[in-house]
Design goal:
Layout lengths: L12 H10 L1 H15 L13 E3 L1 H8 L3 H13 L3 E7 L5 E7 L1 H6 L24 H15 L9 H12 L6 H10 L1 H12 L10 H6 L1 H24 L12 H6 L3
Antiparallel strand pairs: 1-3, 2-3
Length: 259
């Protein structure tokens, strides 16, 4: 099934924002692609571009979409000129789906420019940046003491730099929450990273090096958990309302085609 273009002029920033509102699930998938791509170093042979290279089953886990639904959304993004896709070997002979955002997507996508919240713990009266080093280092050290047996945690200079690189890939308004969520579930993430990346090296205690290396995994799991919570909340409200007529290119229409 080929997904037709929506008719939006995505060269126009205003229409791109309207497109994101009209197709929230497609926009969320694009966000996941951009986050993964920003921290990836994968390349195809004879291709200078950087790609996010993961099996489709991994994208399904991160996004909460079923395989065929995911493929339709990826095709939908590709039709709109927001991503490019290729198939190729990575980390051996295993075939992965290589995905990268296009210039159009990166030019308009405002994921990394979310407005600051007045109540953010990363701001003070002098309008400090959301990713203020003191704030995210403190968030990590407090989380380690809170969720492990460590009585004290003080990051070294190199560990602070590794944490900074990881934080740079995160949505600013979720930095402290992602750190807390990751450290609290550290053992679970160790097994999950092994399953996703087929890497068998894992630190039994929270490590900034491991966190930086696989930060896209930590981010996607956390963001997916937020979507699951929102879905559960919305399902209660939607169960009492009548279904409206579904347009051909809406998220609901694409989901309804799931076998």
């Amino acid at each position: 099934m080929s997904v037709v273009a929506s008719g939006y002029n995505l060269e126009d920033p205003a229409e791109f924002k309207a497109w994101c509102v009209h197709y929230p699930k497609a926009a969320a998938l694009l966000a996941s692609v951009i986050r993964s791509w920003k921290t990836s170093k994968a390349k195809l042979r004879d291709d200078p571009h950087v790609w996010a290279a993961y099996p489709l089953r991994v994208w399904c886990q991160w996004t909460g979409l079923k395989l065929r639904t995911l493929e339709r959304y990826l095709a939908f993004l590709e039709v709109h000129g927001l991503i490019r896709r290729e198939r190729g070997p990575f980390a051996g002979n295993t075939l992965h789906t290589f995905i990268r955002p296009t210039r159009r997507a990166l030019a308009h996508y405002q994921f990394q420019k979310t407005p600051k919240s007045k109540t953010s713990k990363f701001e003070n009266s002098k309008s400090k940046k959301v990713t203020d080093p003191v704030a995210y280092v403190d968030a990590w050290e407090c989380a380690v003491v809170k969720h492990t047996d460590a009585a004290y945690c003080k990051l070294t200079k190199s560990a602070r730099y590794q944490l900074k690189e990881a934080v740079d890939a995160m949505p600013p308004e979720h930095v402290s929450s992602i750190i807390e969520y990751s450290v609290e579930r550290w053992n679970w993430f160790g097994g999950h990273v092994k399953y996703v990346t087929e890497e068998f090296t894992h630190s039994p205690t929270p490590s900034t090096a491991f966190f930086k290396k696989h930060v896209n995994v930590f981010i996607n799991v956390y963001m997916n958990s937020l979507k699951v919570q929102a879905t559960k909340s919305n399902s209660v409200k939607s169960s009492s309302s009548q279904k409206s007529e579904i347009d051909v290119c809406t998220d609901e229409y694409i989901d309804s085609l799931e076998d």
